[in-house]
């Protein structure tokens, strides 16, 4: 079975998400087929296997962060905490086992192998107070943002430790990045009001400014950027994300006790311009 393109986007052609999650064939994982599924917020909340997903996230957190934080401290305390951290506007990919992987697996719950979410940042409605107390000091401050750039966050990028080393981290990150970029481009074009004369005309809109040439080409976008943000422990992931085009914009030393750490750790905030 061929591995799908890492930049595959699973939204509908018109940019909307259907009532049911969109599922396509995934890569072979441990020589067994898998599925890639895209969820909207409502679809993820209705997903019957949120508990196994939470357990996988906690297991991965302990495996990668256990030497820095207290291994007894769970990354997610409840099934709802994940929703609280990525709400209100988000989408989530899950790579899971396929029910057709073997006759013995028929009827069994899918095994989540990897997950990743894209969360649109809305500075006016950020509600850090809803987060778990360990996360409040980690939240990126947005009060000072005054530009019109669109910002999204990479959230909950997790791969089960048992299947690491098979390219799933790169795949899930690529899927989320591609979905964010597609939504940005669709929204930008949808906001433009275009003359039907067939001649070169000015295009003016809240989020778009340019020139139409002929019937179907628009050039000269307004200076609105798509910025992709993430935050992570420096020691664990900064080098990896720098290789993916991110730059570190801020560093903080988190105090002893954050996530149960005995010595504290350095936390980095990173950014990537996705407009180009």
Write up this protein.
With 276 residues, this protein is of the alpha+beta class. The protein has helices spanning 41-45, 50-65, 81-86, 168-190, 234-243; strands spanning 22-25, 34-39, 90-97, 112-120, 150-159, 201-204, 209-213, 217-219, 226-233, 247-254, 265-273. The chain has an 8-stranded mixed sheet, with helices on both faces. The chain has a 3-stranded antiparallel sheet with strand order 6-7-8, with no helix packed on it. A hairpin with a 3-residue loop joins strand 7 (209-213) and strand 8 (217-219). It is globular, with a radius of gyration of 20 Å. Residues 1-13, 125-137 and 193-221 have low confidence and may be disordered.
Q: Over all CA atoms, what is the radius of gyration?
A: 20 Å
Mean pLDDT: 77
Distance between the termini: 33 Å
Helix content: 10-25%
Give the percentage of residues in beta strands.
25-35%
Number of strands: 11
Number of helices: 5
The SS-based structural class is: alpha+beta
Identify the overall geometry. Answer: globular
Write the element-wise H/E pattern from the N-terminal end onward: EEHHHEEEHEEEEHEE
Sequence of strands across the biggest β-sheet: 1-2-3-4-5-9-11-10
